[in-house]
Specification:
The complex is a heterodimer of chains A (775) and B (302). By secondary structure, chain A is α+β, with helices and mostly antiparallel strands. Chain A is built from 18 helices and 31 strands. Chain A is globular, with a radius of gyration of 27 Å. Chain B has 302 residues and is an alpha+beta fold. Chains A and B meet through helix 3 and helix 18 of A and helix 12 of B.
Chain lengths: 775, 302
């Protein structure tokens, strides 16, 4: 089939110019006529009853247009569990929860007025640790949890704050441990971190005073899901709300669901038709939007001397924060494959998503995979070490391959994992020891290598729909609900449309996203877009092409079957000079302003839903992504500082629709993963207060922290994917910390169980090891 | 970012006028130099000075010049970029240039001034340890004329100096460099760049024949309320040959002298350990005349 002309080619992103020149307009930049400016009063308490709110002074402040509290906005939203008020109702559950808001003629006035709102609180006990909050005798953070509307697959746990208890049961782990020659039990932890997208959160909202219709301008990664969530909360028909999606300046999972939208809408109902802008600054984004789940991961495994894994038991506590958000599904989709991509006959996993009094956790690039991988991939190295096996060989012996039945009951196909392992290992010259840095006179520098692999599912079942419109000028536009969050989807989808329409790539563009006109899409999450929306756009383009062929046949005095498409033309297969341009066909039929439209929808359906007692499923995911990353690191033993020298990342993408974009995704993922490995940690004290809500002390990596990066594309085609494609967005950072952790352990001869791998943490581990040796 | 409240800004053209202004306007004002600390404090941290006196219209406060006696005067409004790239500084006190290069980013260094940085009195300021190790002096102008104190005495606490409200830091004066002067500055922070010093160590040694230490100065940043000298560690080195063993001892002594705190960045214990290690390294680097230990970040910077 490889006579592809656009797909598989490293074309330049269609949005490159506008972005590098700064011309692109993002959600945060948006200015609407006659708009007012919103500011939020955030809770200073982690868990407290609201005794009294007095807004009189704020209302009287000159320039104030509206003041709202929970009383004015008695709506509750929530994707998985409907538990989150637009503005706090009677109590607050984390520091940073919106309590009240002001709209005013300018931002300074709004800020001055919001400070005049007086709130009296009565403190309640607050939890920051999910293990504490999960106890049976813990104080309930949500007193009315039992009455909340929940998605049907949610299974709350026994304790009052456990909003999801996921169970995986395969075989008999106790029997497996008895059969093992070596049993190892360890505890790992991952701190809370944040997405830190370059563009902070914002939303604009307007309520039409005559029709009551709500328009929301927001860079949301799933406008149709947000539309559902907000109309459900407001109890209005879907037609009453419209989402317009400006460009998004990065999201990484933080801009799904409802974040700033509820406050903007609550204010917009009170401004008599004037649009409201609510923009969070960096500190507000840190404390009030979304984080990645901190996790505590217990893992116990049994292995035989011959390297076979007999059993694995895991308990994972996911720190969900004050509201459920996507915690239940992160818990399910992160806990299910947490034991890793290995053949294990006996597996038991308990995943607990737990309410606590810290900022809300939710989706984050990787959706629960990085937390499990941090534990299991280092645990894998520890097992190999105890068996005297090479970690790569141990993995090669145990990893999934085509035809294997995974421990959740699904038969796997298109498994490119071994190829990623081999290629990543080769790229760092696995097995070749490096004793010192070339040309360095440094003493006490230890060099180590490590690798880690992952398997990542995608959200299933889901639907994507698309339209393709061809006009009389021979141009096409793609109508797709996939959001350009920086990942390059518009380029990929236009490549697919151009390929199927056989039109030049530069004649195909993406339509902007407005839920009034764009067909439905589930979400721009879970690395699902190339596969799902790619299939939908491919179908829509084929539909348009078929319609064009029907129109062109009489014009060319031929049968439809005799026609072929190339270079924007329709022609007779056996007589190529008998040709019409695509535009000419449209024009002759419908005139110079005419169009031809194709449509298609793609749904991946599950044969059988997840079994809630065993966690088993015949096909838990539309496809799986496989990746291995390998690191070479130098650790300065006297200070604990680790500096990466090289990282290779081999990713099975099925088929690279755009190899250039794939390599960039891998490098971007690596950079983010390196940050989460070496630096990132949202420090939350015992009172639930974020201590480092700024880039001064929340350290992202800079270009200088990055090593030589080697992206490697592996193509093990997925039969159902467009041209064989899978996904790539999330895995880029998933194995990174574990690969680095394994390299650090190789370098210093001791294991670091907690992230981040800061100089101080590594330093103390080295000191402990020295003490142990001395004793 | 909040737009600052309107505030009164004065732009005097002489030192005397500036001091007189402050005397007249009373307490609660603030001098403005590069603005890299002050503007952020006003815009993002809710700091509200009653008025601001911009010093940039006053002539004679910029530039680096060698005096007749061989000492070097650096005007208070000289930017970090100028200090970092000055041939005089690079030639006489290369580690001072390096410490200036450690500040913020290129954009910040183009704007931030050495005098502003000193008068802001942040304990982690990168150039302070290097200047103190060089026994730099602070030239101060007030209503009753000029006075000169040692730079070390300028600092009183975090964000506090011993300047009277109307006094202006006009220049930093570095004594003549002896032929045996060798030094080093190590900034220790988790991130390679764009980070604050968790520990800063500067050493300046006067070596006889490149070996015997006639005089040693060790200054530490970020490990006490003000940049500090490690005098007991210095005493261990004087009139000795700096060996690895002695450097190790001096490092341990400096660590014992330091008074770090635990905060969100680091524990006090770790900071003390890093004083120990980095003092040792800075001493050995100075003696070797080139970095003998792992180069933190000198090969790449922005």
């Amino acid at each position: 089939m490889d006579n592809l002309t656009v797909v598989g080619k490293p074309v330049t992103r269609i949005d490159a110019d506008e972005k590098v020149t700064g011309e692109a307009v993002y959600g945060y930049d948006l200015v609407l006529p006659n708009m007012v400016y919103g500011k939020v009063l955030f809770s200073p308490k982690a868990h407290a009853k609201i005794k009294r709110i007095n807004t009189d002074k704020a209302r009287q402040y000159p320039g104030v247009v509206a003041v709202v509290t929970g009383k004015d906005a008695p709506w509750i939203h929530g994707e998985s569990i409907r538990d989150k008020p637009f503005l706090a109702q009677d109590k607050v559950r984390y520091i940073g929860e919106p309590v009240a808001a002001v709209a005013a003629v300018d931002e300074d006035t709004a800020e001055a007025a919001v400070r005049l709102i007086e709130v009296e609180y009565e403190d309640l006990p607050a939890y920051t640790s999910p293990e504490d909050a999960a106890r049976m005798d813990a104080v309930a953070i949500h007193e009315n949890f039992a009455s909340y509307r929940k998605m049907p697959f949610i299974t709350p746990g026994a304790g009052p704050n456990v909003c999801e208890h996921f169970k995986l049961r395969t075989g008999d782990v106790e029997q497996g441990f008895r059969e093992a020659d070596v049993v190892l039990e360890e505890r790992y932890s991952v701190p809370i971190i944040q997405h830190a997208a370059m563009e902070p959160h914002s939303a604009h909202a307007q309520v039409d005073p005559t029709t009551g219709r709500v328009t929301i301008w927001v860079a949301n990664d799933a406008p149709f899901r947000a539309l559902h969530e907000i109309t459900e909360a407001l109890d209005v028909p879907k037609e009453q709300v419209r989402f317009i999606n400006p460009l998004q300046g990065g999201g990484f999972g933080s801009k799904g669901g409802l974040k700033v939208e509820p406050v903007a809408v609550a204010l917009a109902y009170k401004t008599n038709g004037r649009p409201v802008r609510v923009k969070f600054n960096r500190e507000e984004t840190f404390i009030s939007t979304l984080t990645r789940h901190g996790a505590i991961v217990h893992v116990k495994s049994g292995v035989k001397k011959n390297g076979a894994i007999t059993a694995r038991e895991m308990t994972i506590y996911w720190n969900g924060g004050a509201y459920a958000e996507k915690s239940p599904t992160v818990c399910i989709r992160g806990s299910l494959p947490a034991p890793g991509p290995y053949r294990i006959p006996n597996v038991k996993v308990d995943g607990y998503a737990v309410y606590t009094n810290v900022p809300v956790a939710g989706s984050f690039r990787g959706y629960g995979i990085p937390q499990g991988a941090w534990a299991v991939e280092q645990h894998t190295d520890e097992l190999a070490r105890r068996l005297g096996m090479d970690p790569l060989a141990f993995r090669m012996q145990n990893v999934f391959a085509d035809g294997d039945t995974a421990y959740w009951g699904e038969e796997l196909h298109s498994v490119g994992l071994k190829e990623t392992l081999q290629k990543a290992a080769d790229a760092i010259e696995w097995g070749k020891k490096i004793d010192s840095m070339p040309g360095s006179r440094v003493k006490g520098l230890k060099i180590g290598k490590g690798l880690a692999c992952i398997q990542k599912p995608t959200r299933s079942p889901t639907t994507s729909s698309a339209g393709v419109i061809v006009n009389a000028k021979g141009e096409a536009s793609v109508l797709a609900g996939t959001v350009e969050i920086g990942q390059g989807c518009n380029t990929i989808l236009c490549q697919i449309a151009a390929e199927e329409l056989k039109m030049p790539f530069d004649k195909v563009r993406s339509a902007s996203l407005d839920t009034d006109v764009i067909p439905y899409d589930a979400s721009t999450t879970s690395s699902r877009s190339t596969y799902h929306m790619g299939n939908a756009v491919k179908g829509a383009a084929i539909d348009a092409r078929e319609k064009l062929a029907v129109l062109a046949a009489p014009m060319l005095e031929a049968k439809k079957e005799e026609l072929a498409f190339a270079d924007g033309k329709i022609f007779l297969k056996h007589q190529p000079e008998m040709a019409l341009t695509v535009g000419e066909v449209v024009r002759r039929k419908f005139g110079p302003e005419g169009t031809v439209r194709g449509d298609a929808s793609y749904t991946y359906e599950l044969a059988k839903d997840l079994d809630l007692e065993t966690g088993h499923s015949d096909n838990a995911s539309a496809f799986y992504m496989y990746a291995t990353q390998a690191a070479v690191i130098a650790v300065d033993e006297e200070t604990g500082r680790a500096r990466l020298l090289r990282m290779a990342a081999a990713h099975d993408v099925g088929k690279a629709i755009n190899p250039l974009n794939c390599a960039a995704q891998i490098e971007g993922g690596l950079a983010m993963g390196i940050g989460s490995a070496l630096h990132e940690h949202l420090v939350i004290d015992q009172n639930g207060k974020v201590r480092n809500p700024s880039f001064l002390d929340y350290h992202l990596v800079t270009a200088l922290d990055l090593p030589e990066m080697i992206p490697i594309i592996v193509e093990c085609p997925e039969p159902q994917g467009p041209y064989g494609a899978k996904g790539l967005g999330e895995p880029g950072l998933a194995p990174t910390p574990a690969a680095i952790g394994n390299a650090v352990a190789d370098a210093i001869g001791a294991r670091v169980y907690d992230l981040p791998l800061s100089p101080e943490r590594i330093f103390w581990v080295i000191q402990e090891k020295k003490k142990g040796k001395a004793a | 970012m909040k737009r600052p409240e309107p505030l009164e800004i004065f732009q005097p053209t002489s030192l005397k006028a500036a001091s007189t202004l402050v005397k007249e306007q009373g307490p609660g004002g603030r001098f403005l130099a590069g603005g890299t600390d002050l503007v952020i404090a006003v815009k993002e941290k809710g700091y509200k000075p009653k008025y601001v006196v911009d010093l940039k219209r006053i002539p004679g406060l910029t530039g680096i010049r060698v005096e007749k006696d061989g000492s070097v005067t650096i005007g208070a409004l000289t930017t970090m970029h100028e200090v970092e790239t000055s041939p005089v500084v690079l030639n006489k006190y290369p580690f001072l240039a390096r410490s200036a290069a450690e500040v913020g980013s290129v954009q910040i260094r183009n704007r931030a001034t050495i005098g502003g940085n000193m008068a802001n009195a942040t304990p982690s300021a990168d150039v302070a340890p290097a200047l103190i190790a060089l026994e730099a002096k602070a030239k101060i102008s007030g209503l009753n004329g000029e006075r000169t104190i040692s730079l070390e005495e300028l600092f009183r606490g975090p964000g506090q100096t011993n300047l009277a409200p109307e006094e202006i830091l006009t220049a930093i004066v570095i004594p003549p460099a002896s032929s045996g002067l060798r030094g080093d500055y190590i900034k220790f922070s988790p991130r390679e760049m764009m980070d604050l010093a968790y520990v800063g160590v500067a050493v300046a040694l006067d070596l006889h024949d490149g070996k015997q230490c006639r005089k040693a100065r060790i200054a530490l940043g970020a490990v006490s309320p003000t940049p500090m000298r490690a005098r007991r560690a210095e005493a261990l080195l004087e009139n000795q040959t700096v060996t690895e063993e002695l450097a190790e001892k001096a490092g341990a002594e400096a660590a014992a002298e330091s008074k770090p705190i635990s905060d969100v960045r680091s524990s006090a214990d770790y900071r003390r350990e890093m004083v120990r290690v980095n003092t040792k390294r800075a001493l050995l680097n100075a003696v070797a005349g080139e970095p003998a230990f792992w180069v933190e970040r000198r090969d790449r910077r922005y």
